[in-house]
Amino acid sequence: MAKQIVMLGPPGAGKGTQAKVLSEKLGIPHVSSGDIFRENMREQTELGKNAALYINRGELVPDDVTIAMISERISRIDCDEGVVLDGFPRTATQAEALDEMLGDLNKGQVDAVPCVDVPNDVLIDRLTGRRTCRAEGHIFHIMFKPPQEAGKCDIDGSELYQREDDTVSTVSNRIDVYQKQTQPLIDYYQQQGVLLEINGDQPIEAVLDEIMTALSGV
Ligand code: AP5
Q1: What is the pLDDT of residue 1?
Q2: Domain ranges of the chain
Q3: Which of 124, 128, 138, 181 could be disulfide-bonded to 133 (CB atoms 3.0-4.6 Å)?
Q4: SS3 of the chain
Q5: Closest Cα to atom 15, ligand 1: which residue?
């Protein structure tokens, strides 16, 4: 089964939700550019302070910063058997840089790109109702995936919070940015023959089944 996997899709499509389970099922790390930025923001590192200027407005962090961060992360030993990338690449420059990184690290090429498609009105409901766990980034939703106890993560008991970029105005900008800067990657990966179109507008388990079936054919 494919091991260099890139999750593609608009904000709120369910990339993170699916990537976490896929990573467990396939035994390879889940590398989320958004999670790494948020961890740095929490720890107030220079990278985090810089990234916050863009993230809180719903803009993309500059390519050079993002590429360096992901290049360092996927060169670590735990990615030797493969990786589930979530949120990277997001621009044509990042996609080309990823091909180069994988080549330089002798990791082959991107094997599969599940592209999770969801209508815009559904995305807004998903993002504004999302709650994220402080400790590990576990993902919940007040309606679609509520925790057993309000405000508390089922898995590690830590506090659930609402991301600063999940307000209605920032979400709309993130969707626009996706359409302009990231959607062109659908063609890029289609031309490489690795795109897997996934219907994300169905229950979480059904989306996972569709992704697993698509990956088993790669
Ligand atoms: P990032 O963290 O990557 O955010 P995103 O791409 O906007 O994606 P999200 O995390 O918002 O959504 P998701 O698709 O993972 O959905 P989720 O599974 O949580 O990036 C944040 C910011 O960082 C960017 O805006 C940018 O500024 C910066 N950044 C990151 N990467 C970058 C890069 N490469 N270059 C430059 N800048 C970068 O699900 C959403 C909600 O829906 C949850 O509540 C979930 O429970 C629920 N849900 C999921 N699936 C379903 C379902 N099937 N049915 C019902 N509910 C569902």
Answers
A1: 65
A2: 4-118+172-216
A3: 138
A4: CCCEEEEECCCCCCHHHHHHHHHHHHCCCEEEHHHHHHHHHHCCCHHHHHHHHHHCCCCCCCHHHHHHHHHHHHCCHHHCCCEEEECCCCCHHHHHHHHHHHHHCCCCCCCEEEEEECCHHHHHHHHHCEEEECCCCCEEECCCECCCCCCECCCCCCEEECCHHHCHHHHHHHHHHHHHHHCHHHHHHHHCCCEEEEECCCCHHHHHHHHHHHHHCC
A5: 16
